[in-house]
Amino acid sequence: MQAHFPELQLASHIQQAVFFPTECPLYPSLLIGWLLSQVKGSGEYADGAALELASGEQWRGNRIILATGRWSPELLMQLGLTLAMTDANLPDKVACSFLAHTDPLPIQINSNIISPELNVRPDGGGRLMLQELDDYADPARPASVDGLIGQEFLRRMFSQTQGARLASIEVGQRSRPADGLPAMGYVTPRQRVYLMAMHSGMTLAPLLGELVAEEVIAGKRSAMLADFAPQRLLTPFNGKSGSLAPGRAVEISGGFSRLSECCRTHARQSAVVHGRSRSSSRPRW
Asked: How far apart, in Å, are the Cα atoms of 29 and each of 34, 85, 169?
């Protein structure tokens, strides 16, 4: 690692670290921007699925792809299904982690660095994203950059980042299926609703985006997805939920109101649904 980053010196309390020189960092906002620039219409088809927005506007398409992270269980309730996932609303080091973002620093890092004390990844423009202290992460208790958590992050950083300042600290809440493995595939009999739920979705997105597109558009499921069908984690919804009443719909980012699978629609394209969900009115099935 010293050969790749000659200006980088580990602090004395970090005895070892691992980095990944053959990998490259992925900047989510840049990737999403590029993907949006590639979106094209795909004609009209019979049969499909429907979304109803909170504004009352309806979207109809041939497929709905649920890429809704930790909110996937709430959405799947609308299809009468329960998805087994780790509850990221509770303090749990498997489900939650502190994420700290630094101000720009005069240091060159183009690879993720993993150590027992601190995980680091480049965040663009000289900024670093830091991850650790999972044992103390609680979504109900935000941390301050000037508090004990912030001070501990700075203590664990590299020798030449002594003047670093933290711009923000947040609690990352992981989208983690109960068995820790991705859940990828259709969840409805007519194969109109496709689920993508995993940790880490951003890390796997470039590969899985291609595999799912091939399956949805061409009907060819990759052998790489063979062990990750979602049915292993799905059970019929029993009407009991701590956050959502039976049969109620959910709203995502103020825009998504109803999710349904239908037999006769005029579809223009597939929808990728992503964002935050909360309860709303009941859909028709």
From this structure: 9, 26, 19
